[in-house]
């Protein structure tokens, strides 16, 4: 199909990646976002090899390598500092054909915006209604503007408005059971080796340091808490010191060193796998389609995979837009549902939903030679569209 005009709602990672991919095959793309200023949610993201491969195909391999962190190993420690396992990621890279690149979200969004053209993103455009005809689809915005195209892509995140229009009903977000604090700190040897992902586990909690570009660690803390707990940045350090009292020295140093005003605190939610992603000429993508807990590190990668699959079907099939979108939906429903449910299951295991299972996991880590970890990650990567 040639000369398509595509309207994308949402200028996050998924929307921008899709816009780039669609323009590269010759389509006219317009992106709209409700915000007045683009600010990526969260400080960092683990961009695993399946996501990187799609960016490579888009010609962004060199750019992502420049902003990504050098992550050569994974280390698990007990909360008191005992090294449980230390795994080289080289076998993973050899198995899947591409190294992962942990990256700061701001750097990733800047890279994608530069490629698409920030001037081509229309801000202050909150989509409030969608109308379809046999030949096109129109988005109406709160400010009175409209945008009409051959198809519309809802990449408007976990609180998606487009999703409600596709499904015909609102969806409930499911609280996974824990609160996550995350941010960036300078790489320092008293925190972790510069090329290692260091994870401290115990008491159903986690503290993690992952290298991203420009000499920084992306850090996060996880604590199981009741839904609706609140806090403010002026209490974050005190809060974390209480939750992680008695933990190893690097964890204490991290708490002292983080900047509370640049630290995010988020209740982690997902959404039950949807029954469909498509209605006529409208398709969902990214968190709008499959909002997942971050416990497999695959949320961003799945949005990027969506971009590749959607573009491929639009560009390669000749039975019309609606047929191409249905093929996209058919390929992505099972893949993303599997990610959502496995991430939820892993979250429960990690955060003490069944304390006995969590304790068994701690014990397994003491005897882990790395093969189970590498196999689990590589199987997830290789189930994607680019093997």
UniProtKB/TrEMBL annotation:
It catalyses: urate + NADH + O2 + H(+) = 5-hydroxyisourate + NAD(+) + H2O. Pathway: Purine metabolism; urate degradation. Residues 4-340 form the FAD-binding domain. GO terms for biological process: purine nucleobase metabolic process; urate catabolic process. Its cofactor is FAD. One of its GO terms (molecular function) is urate oxidase activity. Keywords: FAD, Flavoprotein, Monooxygenase, NAD, Oxidoreductase, Purine metabolism. It is an enzyme of class 1 (oxidoreductase). It comes from the Bacteria. Pfam families: FAD_binding_3. Its EC number is 1.14.13.113. InterPro entries: FAD-bd, FAD-dep_Monooxygenase_BioMet, FAD/NAD-bd_sf, HpxO. Belongs to the FAD-dependent urate hydroxylase family. This is FAD-dependent urate hydroxylase. It comes from Phormidesmis priestleyi ULC007.
């Amino acid at each position: 199909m040639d000369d398509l005009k595509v309207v994308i709602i949402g200028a996050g990672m998924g929307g921008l990646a899709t816009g780039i991919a669609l323009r590269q095959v010759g389509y006219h793309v317009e992106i709209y976002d409700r915000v007045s200023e683009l600010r990526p949610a969260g400080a960092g993201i683990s961009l695993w090899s399946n996501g990187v491969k799609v960016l490579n195909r888009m010609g962004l391999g060199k750019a992502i390598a420049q902003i990504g962190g050098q992550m050569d190993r994974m280390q698990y420690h007990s909360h008191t500092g005992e090294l449980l396992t230390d795994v080289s990621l080289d076998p993973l890279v050899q198995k899947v054909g591409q190294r992962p690149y942990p990256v700061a979200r701001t750097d990733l969004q800047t890279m994608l915006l530069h490629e698409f053209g920030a001037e081509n993103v229309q801000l202050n455009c909150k989509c409030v209604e969608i109308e379809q005809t046999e030949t096109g689809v129109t988005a109406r915005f709160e400010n009175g503007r409209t945008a009409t195209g051959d198809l519309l892509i809802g990449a408007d995140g976990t609180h998606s408005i487009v999703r409600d229009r596709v499904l015909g009903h609102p969806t409930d977000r499911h609280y996974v059971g824990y609160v996550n604090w995350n941010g960036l700190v300078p790489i320092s040897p008293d925190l972790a080796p510069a090329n290692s992902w260091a994870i401290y586990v115990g008491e159903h909690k986690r503290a993690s340091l992952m290298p991203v570009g420009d000499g920084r660690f992306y850090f996060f803390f996880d604590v199981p808490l009741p839904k609706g707990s609140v806090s403010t940045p002026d209490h974050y350090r005190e809060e974390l010191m209480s939750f992680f009292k008695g933990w190893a020295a690097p964890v204490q140093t991290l708490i002292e060193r983080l900047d509370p005003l640049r630290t995010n605190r988020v209740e982690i939610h997902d959404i039950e796998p949807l029954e469909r992603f498509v209605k006529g000429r409208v398709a969902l993508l990214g968190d709008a389609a499959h909002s997942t807990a971050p416990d497999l590190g695959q949320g961003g990668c799945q949005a990027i995979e969506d971009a590749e699959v959607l573009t491929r079907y639009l560009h390669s099939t000749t039975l019309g837009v609606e047929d191409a979108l249905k093929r996209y939906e058919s390929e992505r429903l099972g893949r993303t549902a599997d990610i959502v449910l496995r991430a939820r299951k892993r979250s429960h295991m990690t955060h003490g939903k069944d304390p006995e299972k969590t304790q068994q996991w701690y014990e397994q880590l003491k005897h882990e030679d790395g093969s189970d970890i590498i196999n689990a990650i590589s199987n997830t990567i290789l189930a994607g569209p680019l093997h």
